[in-house]
Design goal:
Blueprint: H1 2-14, H2 16-26, H3 33-36, E1 40-44, H4 52-63, H5 82-89, H6 91-111, E2 117-122, H7 124-135, E3 142-148, H8 159-163, E4 165-173, H9 178-187, H10 199-202, E5 215-219, H11 236-248, H12 285-294, H13 305-317, H14 331-335
Parallel strand pairs: 1-2, 2-3, 3-4, 4-5
Length: about 350
């Protein structure tokens, strides 16, 4: 699987120069005025530039019913082989490429105000899509970012980019894409200049946390993973059925199973052995039985508790015991013969005088 991913990748690289040149004219049919009037979806390729992968993304969008302007914008250096590697690790150049995409968005919004704008980025293009959103001024917003197998770090802070998206950021990631987005980004680096696994492999660590509430993640499973994990998110069928619902939705999340990174849950509190059992309504069972005892019918001859206390108090005033008051230990001694007066002890000062 790893060998096939690299082979597919290198084959696409070999044709990079010709595809880039052809790509300059291939957007014409997808930038017609009727499409521009409906909205804009910018496709950002991976580090290889225009290739069959991103052409398939566009085909999938059209097959799913997206009748908007859909240009493929190549952002890297058009140098065969070497340029591809530079595109992956040149994080300063990648940020500048993001600024260029942000300018394209501003120009479109100036001429077509209020129209929906999405940016779809595959692999390295996913990172550039994030940089483009960050480069937008505070008074400019787009609808959302769609990241497909993005080679940006899984630990990347998306707060700034998320603020520029009215609907949010959705990240499609594939745990089987370890060859390029695990080993490759650890050895060569991610498009944002770090070394380690990418969000296209593991998802974003901070999704759902403060400032990342509108960051959504969709994990590829089963047949979606495909024989070539890195290309799986670009297949026409996948894009038309899984990506298009997000592009066309009025609100996010939309149309897919959304996942969040798993977080440790607090261990359940240990139950005290002496703690009364709870009934279904949350009350203590012992408490219920005690209440029933209190409400049990009184036996004949029983005096009310208040009457008993009153009688005991009056008896104390008369010097007698109350009806339920226990006998005191010295009470019988008081009823017996009175003690004789004690004799005075002799004075220590000597014999008494007559």
């Amino acid at each position: 699987m790893l060998g096939r991913s690299w082979l597919h990748f290198l084959i696409s690289l070999s044709a990079t120069s010709g595809l880039l040149t052809a790509g300059c004219n291939s957007n014409g049919d997808y930038l017609t005025e009727d499409r521009l009037a409906n909205g804009l979806v910018i496709i950002l390729p991976g580090i290889e530039g225009q290739s069959e992968l991103n052409q398939n993304i566009r085909r999938g969008l059209i097959a799913g019913g997206v009748h908007r302007a859909i240009p493929i914008h190549s952002w890297g250096r058009p140098i065969p082989i070497a340029g591809v590697l530079i595109n992956q690790v040149d994080f300063i150049g990648n940020r500048l490429a993001g600024v260029g995409v942000a300018n394209l968005i501003k120009n479109y919004q100036d001429s077509h105000p209020g129209k929906p704008v999405h940016v779809v980025g595959h692999s390295g293009g996913g990172g550039v899509a994030v940089f483009a959103a960050e480069a937008l001024p505070e008074d400019r917003k787009i609808d959302g970012l769609v990241l497909l197998s993005a080679s940006i770090s899984s630990a990347y802070d998306l707060k700034k980019a998320a603020k520029r998206c009215t609907k949010g950021i959705v990240n499609f990631y594939n745990p089987d894409d370890a060859g390029l987005l695990g080993i490759g980004t650890t050895v060569l680096g991610t498009v944002d200049g770090t070394h380690g696994p990418s969000a296209g492999l593991l998802g974003f660590d901070k999704a759902g946390e403060k400032g990342h509430e509108n960051v959504y993640q969709v994990k590829l499973t089963g047949p979606d993973t495909g024989d070539d994990p890195h290309a799986s998110t670009t297949h026409v069928g996948f894009v038309s059925s899984r990506v298009v619902p997000w592009v066309l939705a009025e609100e996010w999340p939309a149309g897919s199973v959304v996942t969040r990174p798993s977080k440790p849950h607090p261990a359940p509190a240990k139950k005290d052995a002496n703690e009364p059992a709870k009934s279904e309504d949350g009350k203590d069972k012992k408490g219920d039985s005690a209440d029933k005892k209190k409400k049990a019918p009184k036996k004949a001859g029983d005096a009310p508790p208040k009457d008993k206390e009153k009688g005991a108090e009056e008896a104390r005033k008369d010097g007698k015991r109350g009806p339920d008051e226990p006998e005191k230990p010295d009470e019988k001694a008081k009823e017996g013969p009175k003690d004789k007066p004690k004799k005075k002890a002799p004075s220590p000062a000597g014999p008494s005088t007559p």
